[in-house]
Write a structure and sequence with these properties.
heterodimer; A: 220 residues; mainly alpha; Rna Polymerase Sigma Factor, Chain: A; Arc Repressor Mutant, subunit A; B: 201 residues; alpha+beta; Immunoglobulin-like; three-stranded antiparallel sheet; 5 helices; 22% strand; elongated
């Protein structure tokens, strides 16, 4: 259901002349400044950056007759304060990119981390299949490599068939390495115990999928 | 400069993210967002950061500070005028601290005040206390007293800003005193010193 416009925003976007617009802008900032300044403080750890980012956010929101703020009206399913924080955060990061450049994505490191994450999930599944047995990390052989490829392929297929919510849980847990409580917060679940239960169910299901693919033993 | 919304082509749009955070998406839309998050590390990073940001905003004892501007005219310009004043105060924390004995100053670190300005006269709504961070894992205690020295409010926090709860009775025209004591992770302490605040009549 669409949200009603907050009074201050409504007054600002519908101001009839420059004088009432200036007053409305002041009222708007008085009401929402805490979100804007707080977001700048959260995103920018250095004091100078914070105040410059905050200024940038204010200027950007006012640009082009408050064009960004008018976008809230188009689709207003969320609270305005939430929407404003999301916009302010993106503006702060835009500001930082301008000042410091884009964060360089080191393809090598990212690819390595992705492999480590997949391995972590793979090992966990493997432990489900043969509990208590430690993987033999001996010299890689052709057979071992084949087995690992088989497991990796079967796992990728199984993951692709999961519901979006389930894939997200595994990604947050095993690729991003988030704690269970944080996973619950990002997924808007009631408690971390829901995450634990779902995680257990998912791992069991993945194990079953792997066995259906003929992967009964993860370790050659 | 990139328009943040220009990311929507390959990333989640602002509306979807904020509706997801507020738990207001229909199940189908929610599944779409979660599916994208599962496949997009950048959006996942954004969402994880926003969850923390919203928690900090929603926590009752952690409120975002409202910079007391007291300036009329075009508010964007007005705020830009007031911000340098805050920065000026930040550059000279000594100007904000209450006088202390030299020995006290040496023994206890100073904690610069961001808001409110010294000897400020503010309305109830404008009262927000903010101070510089004393470092990661520092803990703060803010104490507010009346003119007789009676504590009217005290709060422990690990944030660097608080605003008085709505049910705290502060009388217009009255003078109050406030100070923040910090305990740092290494056990040392810091303080803002005693500051004076007058509630506007």
């Amino acid at each position: 259901m669409a949200e009603k416009l907050p009074r201050e925003l409504d007054a600002l976007l519908n101001a009839r002349d420059s004088s009432s617009r200036d007053r409305a802008w002041e009222e708007f900032l008085r009401r929402y400044n805490r979100y804007l300044l707080g977001t700048a403080q959260f995103v920018c750890r250095e004091y100078d950056d914070r105040m410059d980012a905050y200024r940038y956010v204010i200027e950007s929101l006012a640009q082009d007759d408050f064009k960004r703020l008018r976008e809230y009206c188009v689709r207003s399913e969320s609270r305005f304060s939430t929407w404003l924080v999301v916009v302010a955060r993106r503006l702060c990061h835009d500001f930082r990119r301008t000042r410091y450049g884009r964060e360089r994505q080191d393809g090598g490191i990212a690819a390595r981390e992705a492999r480590v994450a997949r391995r972590r999930l793979q090992d966990l599944i493997a432990e489900e299949l043969r509990p208590g047995e430690l993987p033999d990390r001996g010299q890689p052989t052709a057979e071992r490599r084949l087995r690992e490829e088989q497991l990796s392929g079967a796992l990728a297929s199984a993951l692709a068939e999961l519901a979006p919510e389930d894939r997200l849980l595994l990604k947050l847990r095993y690729e991003d390495g988030l704690a269970v409580r944080k996973v619950a917060e990002v997924m808007r679940l009631d408690s971390e115990f829901v995450v634990y239960r779902r995680q257990k169910r998912l791992l069991t299901r993945l194990r079953d999928c792997l066995e259906e693919e003929g992967v009964h033993d993860p370790y050659p | 400069m990139d328009d943040p919304e220009s990311l929507t082509g390959s990333h989640l749009d602002t509306g979807s993210i904020s509706a997801y955070l507020d738990g207001r998406l229909e199940s189908g839309e929610k599944a779409r967002v979660q599916g994208h998050l599962a496949d997009c590390p950048e959006c996942r990073r954004e969402m994880t950061e926003l969850v923390d940001l919203m928690k900090a905003h929603d926590r009752p004892r952690r409120r975002w500070p409202v910079v007391a501007t007291g300036v009329a005219a075009a508010a964007a310009v007005a705020l830009l005028i007031s911000v340098p004043r805050v920065r000026e105060a930040m550059d000279d924390p000594g100007a904000l601290r209450a006088p202390e004995a030299a020995t006290e100053r040496e023994a206890v670190r100073s904690l610069p005040v961001i808001s409110p300005p010294p000897d400020a006269s503010l309305t109830r709504e404008e009262v927000v206390f903010a101070w510089e961070s004393a470092g990661e894992e520092a803990a703060y205690r803010l104490t507010m007293t009346d003119e007789e020295g009676q504590t009217v409010w005290r709060i422990d926090t690990d944030a660097t800003w608080v605003d008085p709860p709505s049910d705290l009775e502060l009388r217009p025209g009255q003078i109050y005193f406030w100070y923040v004591d910090a305990v740092l992770s290494d056990g040392t302490t810091a303080t803002t010193g005693v500051n004076r605040l007058r509630l506007a009549p």
